[in-house]
Amino acid sequence: MISFHRLFFFFALLYPSFQDILDLDEEDTCYENNKPVFCLPKFENVVEGKKITASSTCGLKNKSRICLKKRNEYLKCDVCDSTDRTKQHPTDFLTDSDTPNKTCWISEALMTPPPHNVSIRIHFGKSFELTYISIVFCQDAPDSVALYKSMDYGQHWTPFQYYSSSCMDFYGVRPNQTITRDNEQEALCSPLKGGVSATYDTPTIAFSTLEHRPNSFNLDNSPVLQDWVTATDIKIIFDRLLQNNALASSYMTMHYAVSDLSIGGRCKCNGHADRCITDEFGRLKCVCKHNTEGRDCERCKPLYQDKPWARATKQNANECVRCNCNGHSNVCRFNKELYEWSGHTSGGICQDCKHNTAGRFCHYCKEKYYRDVTVKISHEQACKACDCHHYGSKGKVCNSANGQCPCKVGVIGRKCNLCATGYQQTRSKIVPCQRKISGRKSDRNRKHRRKKNCWKCLKRSKKANATKFCKRDYGKNCISQSFWPSYFVKDF
Ligand SMILES: [Ca+2]
């Protein structure tokens, strides 16, 4: 039996980040001296505690006779019966301890000539980055085995690795191809005899996901390989037990049998978390740092979009940067053009500015509000309503700097709610303030003349007449003949 620890150290030599992982402990490793740094969840046997299903397990439907072979010699034959604890061979035996007694998952009898297509599927429940897959057999290793991975919980499957004595005939892949930088995401095919498996005394498949791939020591800068090692599910398909069918005396007693399955890897957090936990819905997720979020820390938090999200590397933690919204928004969005424009320093645009603010940084007051310069822009009351007088102001929009509303003639005050000196209030909505009539003698004469012939309407109207002129809003149809200053008349 090959222990997990033995494999761990073996693959640590192949994987550049492993030495770092060995030093992990419970403290937050995503910061050093309050500065963000690249961090990783611990390296683990990913299948422990995971759901494993097999398309075929002996003894579930009926008792069956099992005869395992090693070095072409039959081992002791036995009965498989799921109802008998001493005779059962469930998928649990793939991940249990094989000490002191080796335990095996065993398929149903193969019955017919190949292909047999017996599969084992492991559901991780989250993206993991895998380093190796190890399968230890209870008898001679099968002749043809295919490993597949899925990145979307089993909706699509990608070949991960083939093993066969006849790669081309069985899987359509040339054996032992050379991987270059152009085809790093391609599955290889190799015979099971030799290679890594030959170093163990037990028939074993030991697939290293990065071995022979040129960028394996530059994973940080290789998105292709980052995808290559990522999986949410693994499927192992046993296609053929024996190379030579003629050797099969009877498929009735032939089975696939595996004593141990281990998959080395770590919860995928893109360098932004050092552990994963189960959330309130029972799903695994990263405990994201560096202002990131998502089950894989695969995006920046809503208010931290000033720079584009990036995976953390040993050189740069690529912490997500907070947008400057002056405390008036919790959301911003990243704009690539702005980011390019700024020389890669800032690309965030604040969204849904609150407290009557507006602008990319919520840094000025929205229309109909003005800036209260007595407080900082970050103050909740930094923008006050213009509150322009309905009749005294020409409009509702005031000067954004000082709040001055656009007053009608004769009207003053920030809100345009006062009559200027020399003006008096009227009931008119159009001319709320009119120039006062002087009390001097000459003016009294004018007042007299006004009564007599000052106003004359241009056309007849039931609503408008000279008497009502100063009380209501019927001035449009009337014209001053002599008394009122010309500028006042123009205002109608
Ligand atoms: Ca076992």
UniProtKB/TrEMBL annotation:
Protein name: DgyrCDS11978
GO cellular component: basement membrane; extracellular region
Organism for this UniProt entry: Dimorphilus gyrociliatus
Top-level lineage group: Eukaryota
CDD domains hit by this protein: EGF_Lam
Subcellular localization: Secreted
Disulfide bonds: 386-398, 388-405, 407-416, 419-433
Keyword Secreted annotated: yes
Keywords attached to this entry: Disulfide bond, Glycoprotein, Laminin EGF-like domain, Repeat, Secreted, Signal
